Amino acid sequence: MSVSDLKAMLPEYAKDLKLNITNVLTSTVLNEQQIWGAALASALASRNAVVIRAIDAEAKQKLSPDAYTAAKAASAIMGMNNIYYRFAHLSGNEDYLKLPARLRMNIIGRPGVDKLDFELWSLAVSAINGCGMCIESHEKQVAAGGISKEGIQDAVRIAAVMHGVAATLDGEAALTE
Questions:
Q1: What class does CATH assign to 3-176?
Q2: Domain ranges for the chain
Q3: DSSP the chain
Q4: C-alpha neighbours within 13 Å on the C-beta side of residue 18
Q5: Active site residues per annotation
Q6: pLDDT at 107
């Protein structure tokens, strides 16, 4: 399965997603590793098997084995962290923010790729998962590392489109069941 196959599966009412999926997978600001790492991490976070398979097939061709693994790791670790930190923030009880998380997060310190790329992918996943604390933290790291606002926006646009495509395909599948 390819991105072209994925586009063909989208219904006509999702024409904007068809156009956007091609557009977001190119960037004048981000490099290929940043684009495809964000796409793979976002596809995984969006949890739709069809989207995951299509993006995975192309990401394997575009990413080194280390970057491929790190993008998957960004999705995995943010799947945990986004829930924990969203709770700590949204509970309204600041005591939770003062407590140590006591969750292993070694991959963040040693992701196996440029830390800036891993932070960018973590930001994209955090946008999908809706964790304000994580979005703020990763955005600051990425901006401090030199990625422009346009580059940050490109990563979040990738996340938004992956999520939109996944939600559309999930909705269509539910209608046919």
A1: mainly alpha
A2: 3-176
A3: --HHHHHHHS-GGGHHHHHHHHHHT--SSS-HHHHHHHHHHHHHHHT-HHHHHHHHHHHHHHS-HHHHHHHHHHHHHHHHHHHHHHHHHHT--THHHHS------HHHH--SS-HHHHHHHHHHHHHHHT-HHHHHHHHHHHHHTT--HHHHHHHHHHHHHHHHHHHHHHHHHHHH-
A4: 11
A5: 131, 134
A6: 85
Amino acid occupying residue 152: I
pTM: 0.95
Condensed to tens digits (0 to 9), the pLDDT of residues 68-77 reads: 999 999 999 9
Q: How far apart are CA 176 and CA 158, in angstroms?
A: 27
Place of tokens 């924990």: 84
Residue 30 CB neighbour total at 10 angstroms: 22
